[in-house]
Amino acid sequence: MSILNKISSDWMRTKHTPIRIMVYFSPIIYPILMLWYSSFSRGSELWQLNIHSIFSQGLGILLPMVVALLTTLVVQQEEQAASFIGLLAEPVSRKSIYVSKLLMVIFITIVDLLLATAIFLLGMKFVLHVENIYYIKFFESALLLALGTLFLYGFHLIVAFMFGVGPNIVIGSIGLIAAGLMATGLGDGIWQYIPWAWSIRLGGMIGATFPEYSYSSVIANYFNSELLKGVVPAVILFILVLIIGSLWFERWEGRKED
């Protein structure tokens, strides 16, 4: 079975589970709430920049908990099926099982972020009546937000399989708080070392390229420097957690109960 077929099979198994509810409704509810909130700030000269900041920072703060919840639901589904016996008995390599589940939740996140962004942009145009919308920049932010979650998904998937619901949710909650703190001045100079800060910092960076900021060569150099601070560790640690997770899951025999 190819990895794409395995991902498709994993997705089909989420039918009639809370995973589908989360996946289908999150990208609709979030932009609606953000449109309502953004409507109170209209009239400012930096209105579109403020809207972008509200939208991307909200996602950046929530994503650590979203990662924890989604990985928990995926693993919990397998645990409820005879304590992982069915999962471990599948006629495919253990590496494929881990990789397929990891890629599935990442793909879900990318699609949901792009969909939420598209709905938000439509609302900006037809509800808030924003002119000259920077569509590409909003979608760039969505992709950078997704990039910031790659390592977290690999990490949380391992934690969920190894320790279960409680520890995974606790770590996600701590990550949510950390993301909120790293969005402030407290994160300056250290955010690149905090994986839970990558999404909120990377996603919000695109705001610096808005015309309202009078984008200059100085800002461009600063933007590129800050971007690399987040992108490089995000990619490197994702590759590492992918390799480590695959090797670990190949030898995993189920969670040991006390």
UniProtKB/TrEMBL annotation:
InterPro entries per UniProt: ABC-transptr_permeasesu
Q: Which domain of life is it from?
A: Bacteria
* Keyword Nucleotide-binding in annotation: no
Q: So where does this one cross the membrane?
A: 21-39, 51-75, 102-122, 142-163, 170-194, 231-249
Instruction: Give the lineage.
Output: Bacteria, Bacillati, Bacillota, Clostridia, Eubacteriales
Record's keyword terms, sorted: Membrane, Transmembrane, Transmembrane helix
Q: Which organism is it from?
A: Clostridium senegalense
Q: What is this protein called?
A: Lantibiotic immunity ABC transporter MutG family permease subunit
